[in-house]
Write a structure and sequence with these properties.
- This protein is of the alpha+beta class.
- It has a domain at about 360-520 and about 540-705: Methylamine Dehydrogenase, Chain H, CATH 2.130.10.10.
- It contains 13 helices and 30 strands.
- The longest helix has about 45 residues, at about 220-260.
Length: about 725
């Protein structure tokens, strides 16, 4: 059956044809062995348009020869006829076979969906109609119960679109230059080998000339050839020498130019600003925690700490199990948010106090030097002075005094190298740029921190009254001399192992006067009944080695002095021969004494006998003795924010004591790493942080967390 349209064209539907992938590929001798090797040629009958798509040019040319143009109209050969005549085609084709017409049909590919929009409506007769109706009913109930329900909150927000701004920048005109050079191949060769070629010396040149002249020549042509070759050799050698000298001169000029750039003041200033920016980016979270500011977290950068916290939370959730998590979520769904906030505050209050390490002031220059003392600048609370020196005589080496800034915790701002170990230092209040440094050999030096020069501004080496023992403590003290009409003046006070407390006069040179010569005192031992009186032992020295001192916070005319004997003497600046009081309680050298800044009648002392004692100035009997571990106590300091809190530096750990909580055990204990000793402590003046120095040259900065300071700044009476 055939179907024709109005114009007489054959529009009969044809069957779709798909090539068989398992068809056998024909050998070279077989022309039409498989339909897979036919060219895709389609031709419509009765005047229909023809289309030709060729896969292989060879097959298409063979088909064109097999089909005659006159027999193409009205003749159709099916695929079955072609396949059925495979064996016949193997023979030599006849003229009729060549004139027969072959029709090949094109097939459509599978439909490719570019856009698929699922329907939002479902037929009532579909299988999912019941489920969708139930879902719509639940949503309608939720919308009905939404007004007045606490579980639904409506929020609106309006975003302000920033106004576009045009920013213009004006810069200097860029000058362009074109430079060119013509270079030959032999110039390149000579330039690369100029450094390896050494010019011949005069002696070698004369020897070579003599050797050439002594040779006999037989012919005139030979003489001419020899002279010509010698001229060319001398010319090439002189050319290479001149080129090498030019290259060396250019290299020297480039080095001088680069050195001038590196040493220029503008370049150094730019490097300084770049270093500040880098340090701010690296230490921003830690500096914010130090200053008690909120920490800014970049959304694009995920820190290691956040990843660690997330991993710990996931591990905890896996351990508790899904059932427990489901129950907790159900409980939290019915808890009021205000109750949750109160619970979180209670948990923070219950959390134990601890020390959180922020960073350390350390570098390659300070490694191996023990931290002996620390002091804040009186004007700039971000500037810290650290002294490096050993306390033991066998471990003495050259010392350092470094000024560290919070803006660069990785390298000190100023470095002052000393010939002897630094044992004490302090900033001046009247002249904040002056830093006084005491050393192990007894000398005192004053440095100017504003200057980049590490030379001392003043030195006590020329003074006839300089100390003969280590200067264990040094401090600038303001004294009120209103009675004499001078007002407040600042004095530099030192205590040394030679038994002298001295006041240094800072003028054109350093000179000192003695405030007190600490004399040895005999220990008062009670005799047992019937015991004979023992003879007193002869003293090697009449003076006792001074270890530390501290002036009264209100009346700077009085001060305490700790000695190597274990005694603490209360002295007056008006009397240099007699002690006002003597406090006996320690069995070893007293390393530090400190007045309470709020209750000025109380003071603390620490010693090598492992103990810390709280004293009242009106009583020679200790009020409290703190001894938590068998270790030497090197340093103590009261907190500047509470009269109950103080910090101690022991050999193996740092302790924070809070007398309002306990007088038996410290509230915080931070242990040192192996082969490390803590030597000094210092509270930050404007934040809740503690600085700890150790024997390896590191100054650790710790944040005091969950340590609530009492409201009262007065110590309660202790019975």
């Amino acid at each position: 059956v055939q179907v024709f349209d109005d114009e007489g064209k054959d529009v009969t539907p044809h069957p779709l044809f798909r090539s068989d992938p398992n068809a056998v590929i024909s050998r070279p001798g077989e022309l039409l062995a498989s339909s897979a090797y036919f060219g895709a040629t389609g031709s419509g009958t009765y005047g229909s348009s023809s289309t030709s798509i060729s896969n292989t040019s060879t097959t298409e040319s063979i088909l064109d020869e097999m089909v005659e143009p006159g027999s193409r109209r009205g003749t159709t050969v099916s695929l079955s006829d072609v396949q059925g005549s495979k064996e016949e085609i193997k023979e030599e084709p006849t003229k009729e076979d060549l004139d027969r017409r072959v029709d090949i049909y094109l097939t459509e590919t599978e439909t490719i969906w570019i856009l698929d929009m699922p329907s939002v409506a479902v037929s009532v007769e579909s299988e999912d109609a019941g489920r969708i109706l139930e879902r719509n009913r639940i949503y309608a109930d939720i919308c009905k119960n939404r007004p007045g329900n606490d579980r639904f909150v409506e929020k609106m927000m309006q975003t302000i679109n920033g106004a576009a701004k045009n920013k213009e920048v004006q810069c200097e005109q860029i000058i362009m230059e074109d430079k060119g050079m013509t270079v030959t191949s032999w110039d390149l060769y000579d330039s690369f080998n100029a450094l390896e070629i050494k010019p011949m010396s005069k002696a070698e040149g004369s020897g070579a000339t003599a050797g050439r002249s002594s040779r006999p020549h037989t012919t005139k042509e030979h003489d001419q050839t020899t002279s010509a070759s010698s001229d060319r050799g001398s010319t090439s050698s002189s050319t290479m020498i001149s080129e090498s000298s030019v290259l060396a001169r250019n290299h020297e000029e480039e080095e001088c130019h680069s050195q001038a750039i590196l040493t220029s003041e503008k370049f150094q200033q730019d490097l300084f600003f770049m270093e500040r920016i880098l340090m701010e980016n690296i230490f921003q979270p830690k500096l914010a925690a130090y200053r008690q500011f909120p920490v800014l977290i970049d959304a694009d950068v995920t820190s290691d700490t956040s990843g660690t916290v997330a991993a710990m939370k996931e591990a905890k959730q896996k351990e508790h199990g899904k059932e427990k998590n489901d129950k907790e979520e159900q409980k939290e769904a019915f808890i009021d948010p205000s109750i949750l906030s109160d619970v979180n505050k209670m948990l923070e209050e219950i959390a134990p106090p601890r020390l959180e390490r922020l960073w350390s002031y350390t570098c390659d220059l300070t490694n191996g030097h023990s931290v002996s003392s620390m002091a804040w600048s009186k004007v700039n609370p971000d500037l810290l002075a650290v002294g490096y020196g050993a306390f033991d005589f066998k471990e003495q080496k050259k010392g350092l005094a470094c000024c560290w800034s919070l803006k660069n915790p990785m390298w000190p701002e100023r470095i002052f190298r000393c010939e002897h170990g630094v044992t004490a230092l302090d900033f001046s209040m009247a002249s904040p740029n002056l830093l006084a440094v005491g050393m192990y050999n007894g000398s005192v030096a004053i440095y100017n921190v504003r200057s980049c020069d590490d030379a001392a501004l003043l030195d006590s080496s020329e003074s006839s009254n300089k100390h003969t023992g280590p200067v264990w403590q040094l401090r600038w003290v303001e004294q009120d001399r209103s009675g004499t009409g001078d007002g407040k003046t600042e004095r530099l006070i030192c205590i040394s192992a030679d038994g002298r407390v001295t006041e240094w006069l800072v003028h054109k040179r350093l000179d000192c006067t003695d405030l007190m010569k600490i004399k040895r005192t005999e220990s008062k031992k009670k005799r047992l009944p019937g015991e004979k009186e023992r003879k007193s032992e002869a003293l090697i020295s009449q003076q006792a080695a001074g270890m530390c001192f501290d002036f009264h916070p209100k009346d700077t005319n009085f001060y305490l002095a700790g000695t190597e004997e274990g005694h603490i003497h209360k002295c007056s600046c008006s009397s240099s021969e007699q002690f006002l009081e003597t406090y006996r309680g320690h069995k070893g050298p007293v390393y530090k004494v400190a007045w309470n800044p709020f209750s000025t009648d109380m003071f603390l002392s620490c010693s090598a006998d492992w103990s810390i004692i709280l004293w009242h100035q009106d009583s020679q009997t200790p009020l409290l003795t703190f001894s938590s571990t068998a270790a030497v106590v090197y340093d103590i300091m009261w907190s500047p924010k509470s009269s109950f809190i103080f910090a101690t530096a022991k050999e193996s750990r740092v302790e924070i004591w809070d007398l309002s909580v306990s007088t038996l055990d410290p509230v915080i204990s931070y242990f040192a790493s192996p082969r490390e000793k803590f030597t000094s402590v210092l509270f930050a003046t404007n934040t809740d942080c503690l600085l700890v120095g150790d024997s390896k040259g590191e100054v650790g900065v710790f944040e005091l967390q969950n340590l609530a300071a009492p409201n009262s700044n007065k110590v309660r009476p202790i019975r």
